[in-house]
Amino acid sequence: MRELIQRLSRHPFITIELLLASFFANLLGLASSLYIIQLLNRYVSHGVDATLFTLTSGVCIAVIFEFAFRRVRSILAGSVGKERNYQMMLGIFSVLTKGRMKSLDTIPQRLRQEIMKGSNSVEDAYKPANINALFDLPFSFMFLGVLSYISILLGFITLCFMLLTVIIATFSKHLITPRIQQLTETSIKGNGLFSSANNSPDMIRLFDRGSFLLSKWRENSKDFLQQRNRMADSQDLLQGITRTVQSLLSISIYAAGAILAVKGNFNVGLLIGANILAMRAIAPINRVAQLGDAFTNASQSLERINRFASIETERDGGVALKNYQGSLKLNDVAFKYPGMKQPLFESLTLDISPGSVLVVTGENGTGKTTLTRLVSGLLEPDRGQILADGVDIRQLSLPWWRSCLTMVPQDIAFLPTSIKENLMAANPAIDDAAINRIINHSGLSSFIDQTSMGLDTQLTLNSEYLSTGYRKRLAIARALAVGGKLVIMDEPTEGLDPKGCNTIYSLLVALSQARYTMIIFSQDPNIIKGAGRILDLNSKPVPRIRTNKGTPAQANNGTLHENRTFHEKTTNLKRDNRVAAPNVNMVKKDEKTPAMKSHSLPKEKI
């Protein structure tokens, strides 16, 4: 009910109109009862046709107006929740797209899906028909008052049955609430199993996990169906009890009214009219009682949604440097995920000058991907600073900072749209000529030529139908579309064939020659020998920096520049792999504003 009050409080004038529409609709609802009483007492007793015509015309007009008021009320009730439902769905998606990753990482994906589905439960619970039922509830006492005016005894009997219905509804709510919670948890587990089966069909078959998943699915489905059947049985029991209570009320009204009629204090017209009034008095309570499970489900969904919405989002503001030169400094950086006993790394101090190359090595789980997320602003260090051209990136505008990054993550995902739209999403200002040059230099030309739709080929989230090599090339093309001065590549040659590796090597040489700052996370020996410095994350808790000559340097010893540039060191690499660096110089784009610049491939040289 708190949610309903909040919705109504946002629209006070509509709430008043709802109350007035409900009042007149229920007031006109009295006409049918009064019509029966007058018809039996006046027309049947005296047989005057004019009386019949007058009574029938009057009640027909009342029924039409009652319908009109109820229709207006439904429209008003729909307008109360429309904006709230929109804002709720938008808020959930905003947290998914802009929430701080350190908090989002603690919420399983299947639970996020259930939270999004929960908005549908809330919307369904507070749809116009249900709001109308709640607004009819207080007018039960209007019908009860009219009935009590006719007969205090019949009014008292009706009041007792109304209280009995409330007690039954309250007991039912306490019975159903834990069952809904249990059903939701089972549903979340089932969603996780379905996602595993749907997203990883090859893995399931290759490693014979089908039987294992099937047994888990069978167990989950059995539990889910049992819980849902118990829920349905509880709902059916409640409906059966309310119908029984309604029937018993009708029987009690007729029995008590018959006694009064025998004593001469009542007549048949009043008896039938009194029964109609009693049914109108208890009907809203029965309807609200049957909505108990919907409101309970909505309440639990709202709790999850509100907890999810409390996740802090990434900052919107921040400064944008006029001309980012490509330098990056890590000053005493430390980071630890929640629940970990030891930090992934600490006391990491490193100065990366513009145009230099750093290769980061380390076994799985040593923090390579975490470091990329720290540098890109997806995560914030627990201690220390990350400085871009001397400015803490926590002071920078995150969209601007990420426009300075040419980034290829290890886990590759795409927007579910065309290849061209994926590239334009990375840089809306890019033109067709630049896109074609990027396609060529990322090694995608043959793939694009072989597809029937070319750049309009549709991608899925993970593009499972593409080979690892083509997914990697698409990710590189997207990164080149951004054209940031700081290049970050996480395992760029992983999963590539020799031809694909050669394409990457050539690209890295070209980027180095164009004096782009590069941080490459890789175990590839060809890439390692092409860097002046190597950051070893296997060294715990303080990562170690060494030169390619093998001279170690502790990370907290300050700046350590490489002795030779990357393109000098890759002369042998190019010769060994029989590739030549493409004639690529990546330069800055035209300034968008005096305060902000972004970078892309130059149109004349790609």
From TrEMBL:
Q: Name one GO molecular function term.
A: ATP hydrolysis activity
Domain ABC transmembrane type-1 residue range list: 18-297
Q: Which domain of life is it from?
A: Bacteria
Q: What is the lineage of its organism?
A: Bacteria, Pseudomonadati, Thermodesulfobacteriota, Desulfobacteria, Desulfobacterales
Instruction: Give compartment(s).
Output: Cell membrane
Q: Which Pfam families match?
A: ABC_membrane, ABC_tran
Classify the protein's membrane topology as the record does. Multi-pass membrane protein
Asked if DNA repair is a keyword of the record, the answer is no
**Cellular component, GO annotation:** plasma membrane
Q: Does the keyword DNA-binding apply?
A: no
Residues that span the membrane, as ranges: 12-38, 50-69, 141-171
Signal peptide residues are none
InterPro entries linked to this entry? AAA+_ATPase, ABC1_TM_dom, ABC1_TM_sf, ABC_transporter-like_ATP-bd, P-loop_NTPase, Type_1_exporter
For this entry, the protein name equals Putative ABC transporter related protein
Q: What keyword terms does UniProt attach to this protein?
A: ATP-binding, Membrane, Nucleotide-binding, Transmembrane, Transmembrane helix
Q: Which ranges carry the ABC transporter domain? A: 328-564
Q: Read off the Gene3D superfamilies from this record.
A: ABC transporter type 1, transmembrane domain (1.20.1560.10), P-loop containing nucleotide triphosphate hydrolases (3.40.50.300)
